[in-house]
Amino acid sequence: SAKTHGRNRFNYFTPAMQNDAQKRMLLVQELKNAILQQQFELYYQPIVELGSEDIVKVEALIRWNHPTMGFVSPADFIPIAEETGMIIEIGNWVFSQAVAQSAKWKQRFNVDIQISINKSPIQFRDDTTDVSDWLSQMAEQHVDAKNICIEITEGLLLEKEQNVEAKLLAYREAGLEVSLDDFGTGYSSLSYLRKFNIDYLKIDKSFVNNLTPDSNDLSLCEAIIVMAHKLGMKVIAEGIETEQQRNLLEFAGCDYGQGYLFSHALCSEEFENKYMQQYVAPMRLNELVSG
Ligand code: C2E
Ligand code: MG
Ligand code: MG
Ligand code: MG
């Protein structure tokens, strides 16, 4: 009956959930203004070669600094941006920003450093964002295709839509590289690795968190690394926080690493001050940090 239904609903919405719903509504409202009011900023987290700790590229990570809420985590607002479709506009902003940054680093420091950007599956499905728009933006700013890498997740590769496959192919044909992000947390349908040409496989940080000798997680990492190499892919481990994790992964043959052990994500100014002012190719994290 309506009464029972009403009572159930009353029980269903606990204060905590009500706050979640309210929080969500607030975020939807505020997201709409965020681009216009320039509340977003891209941060850059170094990805290093495990052996030398040379920086080989950076991952662009969006930061939302809201005037009253402060920093809002992408884990909180990216899913909402995806549900509401706002991710299209945000994604285009991220891309333009990364291309402009790449052009600036080339101009000011003569550095070709690849910027890896996260691309939501929603953007791949969207027809208003055309691959050629992005390619012409890069051409206009004289940014080489090899300086941009696109991070996608496993779910995208499961999509039946021809569109997704065609777009992915178009990026690769233009010379952009492609990373498979958060590997191991999605559907992990291995057959898709053979169908799509992927340059890098990123081992999700949940496998790196509890990495110890003789752990199942280490066996998994070792197996992923061997498989990726046999398929011609390089491996990046994310979420490396300790020397032990770094050493175990390096010994297992992992190519690259990303994590707080090496560096947090930094705003462009901080990144430049730390790694570019005294730039001598190739960038050596050790020397630059101590020197
Ligand atoms: P992701 O693409 O897997 O990015 C890696 C996340 O791990 C980042 O979180 C990074 O700050 C964090 N991380 C890096 N090293 C460590 C570490 O050593 N320990 C731990 N615990 N975490 C580490 P962040 O910046 O909060 O981003 C979360 C997620 O939000 C990203 O996961 C990505 O899926 C999404 N995201 C971030 N920026 C963008 C964007 O510009 N566009 C889209 N579509 N998604 C984005
Ligand atoms: Mg990523
Ligand atoms: Mg990742
Ligand atoms: Mg992740």
TrEMBL record:
Entry superkingdom: Bacteria
Location of the protein in the cell: Cell membrane
Domain EAL: 24-279
Name listed for the protein in its UniProt record: Diguanylate cyclase
Full protein segment contained here: 732 to 1022 of 1022
